[in-house]
Specification:
Shape of chain A: globular
Structural class of chain A: alpha/beta
Low-confidence stretches of chain A: none
Bound molecules: thiamine diphosphate, magnesium ion
CATH architecture of the largest domain in chain B: 3-Layer(aba) Sandwich
Distance between the termini of chain A: 60 Å
CATH topology of the largest domain in chain A: Rossmann fold
Number of strands of chain A: 8
Largest sheet of chain A: 6 strands, parallel
Protein name (chains B, D): Alpha-ketoacid dehydrogenase subunit beta
GO molecular function (chains B, D): oxidoreductase activity
Radius of gyration of chain A: 21 Å
Number of strands of chain B: 14
Shape of chain B: globular
Order of helices and strands of chain A: HHEHHEHEHEEEHEHEHHHH
Strand order of the largest sheet of chain B: 3-2-4-5-7-6-12
Radius of gyration of chain B: 19 Å
Distance between the termini of chain B: 45 Å
InterPro entries (chains B, D): THDP-binding, Transketo_C/PFOR_II, Transketolase-like_Pyr-bd, Transketolase_C
Helix content of chain B: 25-40%
Oligomer: heterotetramer
Number of helices of chain A: 12
CATH class of the largest domain in chain B: Alpha Beta
Strand order of the largest sheet of chain A: 2-1-3-4-8-7
Number of domains of chain A: 2
Largest sheet of chain B: 7 strands, mixed
CATH architecture of the largest domain in chain A: 3-Layer(aba) Sandwich
Number of helices of chain B: 12
Order of helices and strands of chain B: EHEHEHEHHEHEHEEEEHEEHEHEHH
Keywords (chains B, D): Oxidoreductase, Thiamine pyrophosphate
Structural class of chain B: alpha/beta
Cofactor (chains B, D): thiamine diphosphate
Largest interface: B-D, 47 and 47 residues
Strand content of chain B: 15-25%
Mean pLDDT of chain B: 98
Strand content of chain A: 5-15%
Chain lengths: ~350, ~325, ~350, ~325
């Protein structure tokens, strides 16, 4: 479909003409392992949701290259602003899988952040685009302190229609603060196709309204994503200049487990994109250039399945939530009102 | 008469209004081909086409603001906000714009707009999908605020809302969309805005509610009546703005005791307004302190806790007994 | 300063090379008379404000060409969405001057619209950018009815930083509805210079984010404004395609009567723009090409002064506002609550 | 001690906090070189430079949203909204974001943010410049809401607001910016959030107010006291969230009569909450219906009508007499 995008590896897993890849085998394998982790997690979550263990779930199936390629660039104390479909990215950045399960269970310990986490991972934005100004503020704070940290802010194609996208990107450009605005253009916002979201053909085009550099990349090519985000952020750590990246990808699954995509898109379209599956591509690349084998692949998948299953076990073993927890964390010090309401509950209980 | 769920009743009202009046158009996110995330606008796209059932970009402020413009020029837009929590990013278009255009222009420009939104808790949804924000609108002059709690009302109130010459916020309790069916007349009918409904008559206490508690309040009340020998009047307010003070005052004047039940957080909720009016108008008739069973003063909780956090049968029953013993 | 803008008449009042003007003398004079009307009104209002008759007042001094050139293109049943500095444009479109004075007085009869007005003039937007989605909605309604009316929506440079600008322009482009988005880029938003509003050099550049055609015009050249808006709207009445126009102009006066611009901008800058005063230019053009004379000019100014003075007289003769009026026009039918509150007031009164 | 206006007292608090703590930064429209449209941030730009006193683009949502981000990473932003009415277009960044980030992240991320806004009526401003919207914030758990009514409180409360680890909405009554001066300590001091102030003691009636009525309420009360021989207790709530229920209940328990005065429209205003709490806690002590003198339930009126529309001395006096005669 698209022209003028950055691609390193084509859908057959071959290096795109004129491109070189600086990554060693182990580095490529590490990216692949993360993608497999996301994929296995997506499958597990979908199954658990069907079994009634999790609430409505928005799968990132098909967007693993975009998420892994970008999130794995982050360094210590960088910031990640995921939205609700970026659970894979959050896992890559260090949120434990069991914590993500707890979030999906609607457990009181949702999004518990380990104290030794390397990257600041903000809880996923549920209100579309609301996280974008936050990322600008955090980036602004790092710039004010002359620190090299950057903020990586994810959002979907739908989010670009929101005022918050506009106000935040504009402000970042005015103040030149180090945010990577990373759009996972997965072609749909629930049932709304990209063409109904905007009259332009590419999100990357929107950068010219703000005076930002922008890049359009093959979002199903993990190496293109990784290399672009790496180059962009290395520069950004010195220049503080914000950048808009559009990763062209596709939501292979339903919008959420409550959605039936057959109402609004064709199987044909989905099939076409299935052929561009980022995992297949990465695997083909590994086989072609790094002697990756099916048996190694199976072993990897099994290892990760076990890891995800164990995480689920830990999440499921948590004691159920207790209402008393809601009265904490509203404020730093509990107010008299909340103290009283908590004690009412306890009397009742 | 067919037995319909509330989702079906609303769908039917939209279908019939649109068939009768081609100035009615719908706009919102995923209301067209997808029929809405709750399927409330199902089949309307097929029936009326993309000019009248419009899937918009993901832009709450532009949905609401362009709906104001549509309404200013003689159309009757029905805008959907996918979940009430997401209305906050278009809030000004309601509070400072839709609500004030009539007074700003001395009636020259008007905004016959209905804003529909699924709302309230209890379906295990993610964060921000379950908030009860009706207070914001009740506190903003120029808006009407309607909350049906059964299919019959939903249909009849929606006709009235669309016919109303002013902006109406029409809040649809999500758990009630498919909670039960009831007989709903197949024709067009108008339930008046601004009129509460006495759901159950009684002499010793008045319970006032709107929305989701409608699904369980009567059994709860009946069991307390049975256990205590008292009789309890139950009022479904249905319209939060303007409030039907008359019906409320008449009831509490008779009973002398009142409990207001709402899902919104307690502090500065609409329950406070109702109690203040009761105390202003029926001070000497009250025999016990007016009470409230509401959401606690916290952000809406995670799914595992919502049933306990929300007003529920146990909390209401306990409070009713306390009130009756006063 | 700027390149690539449209200009018909340069600051000496000479025709710009390669441009032709199709307007007759009387048409040019009509535009000039409207500009003089705006200018005389601005002066009168400023004086009245100082004398305590009016509330805070935002003068459009210096923006007369932009306002008159655009608003005078409007035809019967077109829609005008002014913002608070566009009182001149509103007068051009048919709002009586006394009604504008009443608005500025904070009188209950603010913005009373004559029933026989030709253009729909919405009360000025006080909340920056809030009118832009309204214009889109109205344009949408005319398109749905296949009517040829267009909406002319004014806003300042500051307004382009608002989410409402973005959401509305984007939506107009997606649905192709006939709005002229007309930005009066007067270089300042109160004390905030244009360069602090956006990192790009021109508002017109922002159109590429939405897929709209855009034009950048010399906003102090009434003929350039008139001709551009005329061409654009003629086409728009058939195609319904929205357009973004940036009229480059300058706010010669303070932001409002409560503002002291010497805190944030230099006299030098203001002086430079004074030389580009749109009235001087239009007058020079008339003198040069249409034998306009100083004595005719004086007579015109006097005629208009009288007209504005008379309007003020009528406004000032109105009986003072009565509180009872606030209880009407909240809703079409007065509610019981409001009825009761009105009667309380009357008992008190 | 110098005699300062409220504008000066706020300015001094900002100046001193910023001098002591370089994590405090200001952002907003026209607060820098221009010193704010009310000159409240005067000289701060010169003193602390453009990195710490930042003129932003005209973007309420990005001001508030980026301030959330600044606060999340350890700064203490003080964001100004030029007039409270314009907060509505960034409303979600407060209600769904700033207020909830602590609970959403179980305390891992926090938002020590102060949002300052001039507010309230009485200065003849254009539309949308005079709205009292405090109810919205009081009804939103996770926010504190502060309204000073005199220079001394303004300074001491602002220090506390900036030191507070949670988001605080700090509302500055416009007519009080320069209405009067009073002695304000030159040093840093903290007036506690959540504590009301008994301004005047009395036995027969309690008047509760916040903000602008502070400029005229005492003379009004004194004249009623004199004319009736009663004594009237006057409470400046100062913090609307959390409410100082204790002080309020203690007072009405003693007086048995209450009047709440606020500029916000009456229906579902904070007055209703205060009355509901009073009736819950002091039902048997009340000797007369609780009353309210508030803005009427209309959009804020044109300048020529605001003095009559707002609570004013005449309206309050009349209601006090009525209450005392009950
Ligand atoms: C402000 C807001 N409006 C509506 C919604 C409901 N909603 C959730 S996801 C979604 C679509 C988002 O599309 P996009 O940004 O493209 O992300 P994707 O889901 O495709 O990954 C919508 C409308 C929301 N969460 N927030
Ligand atoms: C949403 C909003 N925020 C802030 C204000 C206060 N305000 C009034 S005019 C103005 C500047 C507007 O600048 P611009 O859009 O360039 O128009 P100009 O005044 O220059 O004509 C501001 C900040 C407002 N009216 N509305
Ligand atoms: Mg998408
Ligand atoms: Mg400007």
């Amino acid at each position: 479909m698209a022209k003028d995008w950055i691609q390193y590896v084509n859908k057959e897993g071959e290096l795109t003409e004129g491109k070189e890849i600086a990554l060693e085998r182990t580095e490529c394998l590490a990216l692949y392992e993360l993608m497999v982790t996301c994929r296995v997690f997506e499958h597990k979550a979908t199954v658990l949701q069907r079994q009634g263990f999790l609430g409505t779930y928005a799968s990132g199936l098909g967007q693993e290259a975009a998420q892994v390629g970008s999130a794995s660039v982050l360094q210590k104390n960088d910031w990640l602003f995921p939205y609700g479909r970026d659970l894979g990215a959050a896992i890559v950045a260090g949120i434990p899988i069991d914590s993500v399960f707890l979030w999906l269970m609607g457990h009181q310990e949702r999004w518990l952040t380990p104290s030794d986490i390397h990257v600041h991972v903000v809880p996923p934005a549920v209100e579309v685009a609301s996280q974008i100004p936050h990322a600008v503020g955090v980036a602004w704070s790092t710039k004010l302190r002359r620190e090299p940290q950057i903020s990586l802010c994810y959002f979907g194609d739908g989010a670009t229609s929101k005022g918050d996208f506009h106000e935040a990107v504009n402000m970042a450009a005015v103040f030149q603060v180090p945010v990577v605005f990373f759009c996972e253009n997965n072609q749909w916002a629930i049932s709304t196709p990209f063409a109904r979201q905007t009259a332009v053909e590419s999100i990357a085009d929107k950068a010219s309204a703000y005076g930002l550099p922008s890049f359009r990349i093959d979002g199903n090519d993990v190496l293109a994503v990784y290399q672009t985000v790496k180059d962009v952020t290395e520069k950004m750590r010195e220049t503080y200049q914000p950048v808009l990246i559009e990763a062209v990808t596709y939501r292979l699954d339903a919008h959420t487990t409550a959605d039936d995509p057959r109402r609004y898109r064709t199987d044909d379209e989905v099939d076409r994109w299935r052929q561009l599956d980022p995992l297949i591509r990465a695997k083909s690349y590994l086989i072609r250039y790094h002697q990756w084998s099916e048996s190694e692949d199976d072993a990897l998948i099994n290892k990760i399945r076990k890891r995800v299953d164990d995480a689920w076990q830990r999440a499921n073993d948590k004691p159920p939530s207790r209402l008393a927890s809601v009265f904490h964390h509203v404020f730093y010090s509990q107010t008299t009102d909340l103290k009283q309401q908590e004690s009412e509950v306890q009397q009742d209980g | 008469m067919a037995e319909l769920t509330m989702a079906q009743a609303i769908n039917q009202a939209l279908m019939q209004t649109m068939a009768q009046d081609d100035t009615v158009i719908l706009l919102g996110e995923d209301i067209g081909r997808n029929g809405g995330v709750f399927r409330v606008t199902k089949d309307l796209f097929e029936q009326f086409g993309e000019d009248r059932v419009v899937d918009t970009p993901l832009s709450e402020s532009a949905i609401l603001g362009s709906a104001v413009g549509l309404a200013m020029n003689g159309l009757h837009p029905v805008a959907e906000i996918q979940f009430l929590g997401f209305i906050c990013s278009g809030f000004h278009q309601i509070i400072t714009q839709a609500a004030r255009l009539r007074s700003r222009s001395l009636g020259h420009f008007t905004v016959p707009l209905v804003i529909r939104a699924p709302y309230g808790g209890g379906i295990g949804a993610p964060e921000l999908h379950s908030d009860s924000l009706e207070t914001f609108f009740v506190h903003s002059p120029g808006l009407k605020v309607v909350v049906p709690s059964r299919p019959f009302d939903a249909k009849g109130l929606l006709f009235s809302a669309i016919a109303d010459p002013d902006p109406v916020i029409f809040l649809e309790p999500m758990p009630l969309y498919r909670a039960f069916r009831e007989e709903v007349p197949s024709e067009v009918y108008f339930e008046p805005l601004g009129k509460a409904r006495v759901v159950h008559e009684g002499m010793n206490l008045t319970v006032i509610y709107w929305g989701s508690p409608g699904a369980w309040i009567i059994p709860t009340v009946l069991s307390v009546e049975k256990a205590t020998g008292s009789t309890i009047e139950v009022i479904d307010v249905r319209t939060l703005s303007p409030l039907d003070e008359e019906t409320i005052i008449a009831s509490v004047t008779k009973t002398g005791r009142v409990l207001v039940v709402h899902e919104a957080v307690r502090t500065a909720g609409v329950g406070a307004e109702i109690i203040s009016r009761i105390m202003a108008e029926a001070f000497y008739r009250m025999e016990a302190p007016p009470m409230r069973v509401c959401g606690y003063d916290t952000p809406y909780p995670v799914a595992q806790l919502e049933r306990e956090w929300l007003p529920n049968s146990a909390r209401v029953e306990r409070t009713l007994r306390m009130l009756l013993e006063y």
